[in-house]
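Support request, please re-run this one:
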Amino acid sequence: MTKPLQINPLKLSQPMGALIAFLGVKNCMPLMHGAQGCASFSKVFFTRHFNDPIAVQTTAVNDITAVVDGGDYSISEAVKNITQKIKPDLVGLFTTGLTETKGDDIKGACFLLKETQKMVYVHTPDFEGGLESGYAKAIEALIEQLVKPSETINPQKALLIPHVSLTPLEIEKIKEQITLFGFETLALPDISESLDGHLGEKQGALSSGGISVEEIETLGQSALVITVGNSVANCGKKLRNKNEKITHLHFDALGGLRDADAFYAELLKFKHLDKPTHSIVRWRKRLQDALLDTHFGFGGSSVVLACEPDHILSLHNTLQEAGATIKCAISPTKSLSLENLTCKVIVGDFEDVENELESSDLLITNFHGERLTKKYKNALLLRGFPNYESVGNQLKYDLLYEGSCYLLFEVANTINHHKEFSH
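Re-run finished. Output below.
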């Protein structure tokens, strides 16, 4: 970031990332330690994006309790109020800028409540990092505080640790592909069962699905751990600390032909297999054909990307293989993922996005980019958080052979449709 301030922010906060992570744990109550408005904003934000109720509670710190209370009281009161009505399997406690500046001892607060409620705590100040780092910190906390050390492995057990920008359907699809190789596959966290837009029996006060606390506790027996996205690479290392016999495979991205090839090649190697299933081979051929078909639509088109870093890398790799020119990538935070890009990279905000739009054809970003594309007459593809305009955000699928086909077709059709109706 070269500017002294953000003009029109692209960045989302660490507590919001932690909230998504805890929503992927079954019967979990995310508890935000901060002012009431912080939790209200996050609740409305994700409710509108997913078109589903979002479970989150707050310790409702105000200007008086912030001065008088050391943090312990408001946390214990919040947990007491929660557990009077419902019985969560886990309370995920995460902080905000206010309580981090105060310096509240959330570890001590959880220790005092350990007899009455199972809890996991994580420090997520919103004055540093972003959505990706808050999400990754919450996963690391779940691993460090819940997973039991083990010296044995279950050769059939695999774990997927996805980055924060993967949709519920993408997580489900990756799990299915790993399962094709003979594994029982879990994901940590698993929003494919909680934020996937399924019709439940009633509106629950807790997360409606995901990986259970019991399953998390036994993850130290996993034979294979697959991390997707640079932001969660360290989570795989944390899990290996629980059991050195675990094999950790890391992929920065799974978008496009090369990334998908690398993913399946590593799984084949791990299982000592010669070739993948017929369906995998068939989808690879379809992607090859999709690359050929969409190449003509992409010819001479200039694309601007503005998403989370891991998401940018995946989109960049897929589109570049089809011949699209990525003019610029604008990221809200720094990341090692950005070092793998071949285009201009800016760590910035929507003012930087606007500066790049004048001579570009397509912008891929969230709902807040819509106003800019109308101003500069660009095509727009909605991806990332938030998307308030569309329904079905949870069922977008842009990864591996199958999803990359869908993404290429959607981008090519968006560009062609825009060219046709803008002249």
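The domain at 14-146 is CATH 3.40.50.1980 (Rossmann fold). The chain has a mean pLDDT of 93.
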